[in-house]
């Protein structure tokens, strides 16, 4: 019960896209990124099985310094190894989400070799984030711009506060997404909507986000401040609808959906069979059978 021997090691063993076989050295780019300090990525693993990952660099509207990129990779590794985990909420500190790459680091790394390596590093990390065996939610308050917008697409779901904006501002910067955000956006909203959002650098508010299927919900505003739940509390209660139950079963749910999303049908079917085998006859299954449960 738990360890899954699947026929698709790419999803569950090494979720990365680039490795030494692509001439990519993770350690080499890490060293370069660490030359750009500032901010942090904070991880709080809770007894509920829901972790909170906070992008924390408020003086720069939570822009990603190089050190934060390295920190994110380390926190994703910790989440990959979290046996009791079921879900993760990604939020920004101080009521705003993330304003993308730290433009000071971008200016200093403007040769295209380093830019490409940074992009490969972030693609690896964000792909691993999306492939975690945890149900993930981006809690968007304030602005999610550029790489911040890309980060929201590396979660299974997005919840938006009213007044918040997701904007792929890349075109205004003479860029396109490079952290995997374009590929994921197409999967989420379809190629026509993706073309509109990228080509027009459209400001997606919560209403438009829900309309095109980018956002999965809008946080409530309670005018009675004493009773009002914070965005994080609302996101935790929204996510808990899907994380009730034992961790191995929730992880298995995420894995079957992930394989269906990413693999060919025949590979996905084989993987689903392996994952099924990992929960069949497990404690939750035996307990449910013994209790003759009715699903009324
Ligand atoms: C992967 C590709 C990318 O991600 S490229 C980066 C894309 N992002 C951007 O271009 C964001 C640029 N920033 C903005 O548009 C505005 O700062 C936003 C986020 C809308 C906030 O506006 P506003 O509320 O008026 O605050 P502000 O501009 O005074 O900013 C406060 C301090 O934060 C800084 N800041 C903001 N974003 C970044 C960033 N991406 N990199 C580095 N610093 C950033 C501002 O420069 C400002 O700093 P300071 O107070 O002037 O020292």
Keywords:
296 residues; globular; lyase; Enoyl-CoA_hydra/iso; binds propionyl Coenzyme A; three-stranded mixed beta sheet
- H-E string: HHEEHEHHEEHEEHEHEHHHH
Q: Give the low-confidence spans.
A: none
The largest sheet is: 6 strands, mixed
Strand content: 5-15%
Radius of gyration: 19 Å
**Ligand types:** propionyl Coenzyme A
Structural class per helix/strand content? alpha/beta
Assign a percent range to the helix content. 40-55%
Mean pLDDT: 94
Shape: globular
Q: Give me the number of helical elements.
A: 12
Number of strands: 9
- With strands numbered from the N-terminus, the spatial order across the biggest sheet is 1-2-3-4-6-9
User: Distance between the terminal alpha carbons, to the nearest Å?
Assistant: 28 Å
GO biological process, one term: fatty acid beta-oxidation
GO molecular function, one term: methyl/ethyl malonyl-CoA decarboxylase activity
Protein name: Ethylmalonyl-CoA decarboxylase
Keywords: Cytoplasm, Lyase
Concise account of the structure shown:
The chain is of the alpha/beta class and about 300 residues long. The protein has twelve helices and nine strands.
